[in-house]
Amino acid sequence: MSRNAPASAQQTNSTVRPAEARPLHGGCVQALSRAYQIAPEQWLDLSSGMNPNAYPVAEVPATSWAQLPSDQDGLLLAAQAYYGQDDLLLVPGSQWAIEAIPALIRKLSGQASGRVLVPEPGYREHAWCWQQQEFSLDVYQTLPSENQLNAADICVLINPNNPSGTCIDYARLCHLHERAIAQDVLLIVDEAFIDAEHSQSMLSRIALGQLVVLRSFGKFFGLAGVRIGAVAAWPAFLNALRLELGQWPIAGPGRAIARRAWQDRPWQQRMRQLLQSDSQRLAGLLRATFNHPVSGCHLFQTVWMPDQQARTIHDALCRQGIAVRRLDSEPLAGGHAKSGLRFGLPPTDKESAVSAGVKNQSAWARLTEALLTLPLKKDCSQLQEPEHVGC
């Protein structure tokens, strides 16, 4: 596969069934509020995996609202310094890139006949967006096999993985990249959750080719509404992707906020330390509650369990106004299904009373109390929950 566009491959039958509907996501408190008749402001939302301790947004200059966004405002320079990479394109969220890149590669290659490797479990938007462009898919766990890579045109890797939180160490990633270069496979690495563990990033290897790295601003800085992401790749690919953006893709107020956040190294250092300790605290709390495997990263922890139990516990938490992300189920032997619940971090105790939805009660205390009341030993088949609304 060339660095400018992936070569076509012989059409093969996909091992992934085409999705009929777009994947569901967390962050759906309004829908849960209607389903459970609990006011939105009373919810403790742990469903999105965002940093709950958002970067403090100071007053935004009036010119950011009144004038058209300018590429000369220093935002790109701040991003290049933060990521340690000059070959960057700023986009309106990494989700935009996940949607745009399959369409761009189909346009550059002239036909949708390539084979794409995607992780399972993994953020399902990747598979869905490639399927919309009629690429065939194959799935792998952790890392693709040699045979899978030999048969592929493109390999998507999520590091840390969402929703498992598994983080592949840098040496193994480098080996995978070397294999991809040797076999002419384009490696796309989604690093949306890596900011707290940035030493594992692949950004330093962009110049070696056959590599695209996606980064998210909103997750680490806790400002998903700003809608900014970054794509790192070789210049010709970025130039082609830039043409898909249109004029003024990132709003002026968001640019001002992101520039300030990317430049604030003391805040970033303090936040990495806080997220590390809070993720360990959450993992310990969940392991003490559930007799199931727990995995995660600095921004969330996932408990793996049978699907029916996940539905029951999800419902029990929702009835207490606590939103977590229930994962899509996967079939297992014996007619059962494996699923899980992804818990985002509660906000820190000193500033979480409002976020917890209950006056004078911290989010951590509210979650701990709710976990103590869960129906862990009840017959899951006898309990019902409202229609699944995405969290």
Folded structure, characterized:
- The protein has helices at 29-36, 62-66, 75-83, 94-109, 124-132, 146-150, 170-182, 218-221, 235-242, 252-263, 265-289, 307-318, 363-372, and strands spanning 44-45, 88-91, 115-119, 136-140, 154-158, 186-190, 211-216, 229-232, 294-296, 300-306, 322-323, 325-326, 330-331, 337-344.
- It is globular, with a radius of gyration of 21 Å.
- The chain has two domains: 29-52 and 266-382, Aspartate Aminotransferase, domain 1; 62-263, Type I PLP-dependent aspartate aminotransferase-like (Major domain) (Aspartate Aminotransferase, domain 2).
- Helix content is 35%, strand content 15%.
- The two termini are 38 Å apart.
- Helix 5 links the parallel strand 3 and strand 4 (136-140).
- With 391 residues, the chain is α/β, with parallel strands linked by helices.
- It has a seven-stranded mixed β-sheet with strand order 2-8-7-6-5-3-4, sandwiched between helices. Strands 9, 10, 12, 13 and 14 form a five-stranded antiparallel β-sheet that branches.
Low-pLDDT segments, ≥5 res: 1-14, 352-356, 378-391
- Portion of residues in beta strands equals 15-25%
Q: What is the terminal separation in angstroms?
A: 38 Å
Q: Please state how the strands of the largest beta sheet are arranged side by side.
A: 2-8-7-6-5-3-4
Question: Keywords for this structure?
Answer:
5-stranded antiparallel sheet; 2 domains; alpha/beta; 7-stranded mixed sheet; single chain; disordered C terminus; Aspartate Aminotransferase, domain 1; 35% helix; 391 residues; Aspartate Aminotransferase, domain 2; disordered N terminus; 14 strands
